[in-house]
Specification:
By secondary structure, this protein is α+β, with helices and mostly antiparallel strands. The chain contains 17 helices and 21 strands. Helix 4 runs antiparallel to helix 5 and helix 5 packs parallel to helix 11.
């Protein structure tokens, strides 16, 4: 087993979660895309013969399936051809995992919904929890200022839409049953739902088609996944309803928004978007299944084209059409607000009667400091029933606060003794912001007591690696990999009425063992799907 990061990244565009950066899959690591090919992921390379034959035989088929089914990113260079695309980074085969932790995580989704909503409406607790961060984190401070101004004027819309994703890694140590420990809870721009669904379809096709024939490929697949001659894959490849559940949640919010007929949903985007397909699948599904129109706007465009009707508080575009829901696929990082224009646009959206996904309060609940504070004794119990709190705590990793308001001497001593056991995280979404291994100790020595308050420490999670085939830009690579598992949760409600609270599908991101970060859009990981071992 390997010691890896407490996160696969701000994974995916939505990602560190998978969060997207504005113009590159690289984020702060813009050369990673090239290094992937040049280095062939030399960190932990291996080429088991059974997967090598699969890699060599199925790569062309996998590439064609991916391109035809929308597993694509826009090409970096669109000069002369704005339609040019490249394959989304994806695993050729699903990632094996025990079934019990998967089903347990599905059951937790509605509880995360409830917790986020309850915390977001307890503003004194939320503000006091974040207080130590504000002096040293200008971005979080600005979000808190927006939240305070909106609530001091009085909310024009009490209903919130949440499309959250709780990310976990399997903690697998000798003498214990494997269990999920939470890496983070994403409350804004939780991406890669569409790619996750399409990757699962790819894996279902490849396993169903090529494990049933008499060939070296079939023998290799049966060996890797321990398949019998007549194995039923339906129970081991769980259905992923993310492309149904997430648009359905947006449609539900639209229907309870109180807007006049003809209202639209606005997706707030970053501008030129390489991860357009993941977003557009939601857009198109929303219309095809619910007849709800969605338009794409940047903060800059909204500053010019949107306004609040002073009589009703409704958000309207220049055309006069009302906006029922504002769905943020941008706004999670400082880079999304280069000037006051963008911040003023965000403030306008928050002050309007449109339903926000997320509200600024929901976004603040996703801060790492809040995650750490909720792990304290009695914190979750403040918001949930004892039975619910007990279940959620089964997935809490070790979390420690730093700096003002925290007694951090003991944990600091432990980190200096062995920094490889910890990950240090700021309040930031995206990829490339965390510190691992010796870098944790080095960074802590550089920070003042006050500056430490912008970070938390997390226990490093210990998953076991397994051989996998990662593909990027048409090139397959076999290596030892670990995965991060995300579970979407959808919520629509106010403080008294829950209109919808459901599990919203799942996401798997795999990376080579030894790579600390894990965002797909940030260039560290690839999309996969779960294969549940009986």
């Amino acid at each position: 087993s390997s010691i890896v990061s407490g996160t696969l990244g701000c994974l995916l565009p939505e990602d560190h979660h998978t969060k997207q950066t504005s113009d590159t899959l690289g984020g702060g690591h813009k050369d990673f895309h090239t290094r992937y090919i040049q280095d062939s992921f030399s960190l932990k390379m291996s080429a088991p013969s059974n997967l090598t034959v699969v890699k060599d035989s199925l790569n062309r088929t996998m590439q064609d399936y991916a391109l035809i089914h929308g597993l694509v990113y826009a090409d970096k260079d669109l000069t002369g051809d704005p339609s040019r695309c490249t394959q989304c980074p994806v695993a050729m085969l699903p990632f094996k995992m025990p079934a019990e932790p998967f089903h347990h995580a599905v059951k937790l989704s509605p509880m995360w919904n409830k917790l986020v909503d309850k915390v977001s409406r307890d503003l004194p607790w939320l503000y006091s929890t974040l207080d130590a961060v504000l002096a040293v984190d200008p971005f979080t401070r600005k979000l808190v200022e927006v939240c305070k101004e909106v609530h001091e004027e009085g909310l024009k819309q009490q209903i919130y839409l949440g499309i959250h994703r709780s990310d976990y890694m399997l903690h697998e140590v000798a003498g214990e049953d494997p269990r999920f420990l939470q890496v983070e809870l994403n409350t804004i721009s939780s991406s890669m739902a569409a790619h996750a669904v399409n990757a699962a379809s790819l894996h279902s096709f490849l396993l169903g088609r090529y494990s049933s024939e008499s060939s070296d490929v079939s023998a290799a697949l049966k060996d890797h996944f321990q398949l019998g001659e007549s194995s039923d894959l339906s129970e081991q490849l769980p259905p992923n309803a993310a492309l149904l559940q997430i648009p359905a949640a947006i449609a539900k919010a639209h229907s309870v928004s109180g807007c006049a007929p003809g209202a639209v949903v606005v997706m707030v985007v970053q501008g030129p978007e390489r991860n357009f397909a993941d977003q557009r699948f939601l857009d198109f599904n929303l219309w095809e299944n619910h007849k709800v129109p969605m338009v794409r706007k940047t903060f800059t465009e909204l500053a010019e084209e949107a306004s609040i009707d002073p009589a009703t508080g409704r958000l309207k575009l220049k055309s006069g059409v009302e906006v029922s829901v504002v769905y943020y696929r941008a706004g999670y990082a400082p880079e999304d607000y280069p000037t006051d224009v963008e911040w003023n646009a965000r403030l306008m959206l928050e002050k309007s009667a449109a339903i926000k996904c997320p509200s600024v309060a929901y976004q603040l609940v996703g801060a790492k400091k809040v995650q750490q504070a909720l792990a304290r004794p009695g914190a979750v119990e403040r918001f949930l029933e004892p039975s619910e709190s007990e279940l959620l705590r089964t997935c809490f990793a070790g979390l420690w606060g730093l700096g003002p308001g925290e007694d951090d001497k003991e944990i600091m001593d432990k980190v200096m003794a062995d920094p490889t056991l910890y990950v240090m995280k700021p309040q930031r979404e995206g990829g490339g912001y965390n510190f691992y291994g010796q870098d944790v100790a080095t960074k802590l020595k550089e920070l003042s007591f006050e500056e430490r308050g912008a970070y938390i420490l997390m226990q490093r999670i210990l998953p076991k690696s397994q051989a996998a085939i990662l593909t990027r830009m048409g090139v397959p690579t076999v290596g030892e990999c670990v995965s991060e598992f995300g579970f979407f949760a959808c919520f629509v409600g106010d403080a008294t009425t829950t209109h919808l609270s459901e599990h919203g599908g799942h996401l798997v991101r795999s990376k080579l063992e030894g790579v600390d970060e894990g965002g797909v859009a940030a260039g560290y990981a690839v999309i996969s799907s779960p294969f549940l071992m009986k």
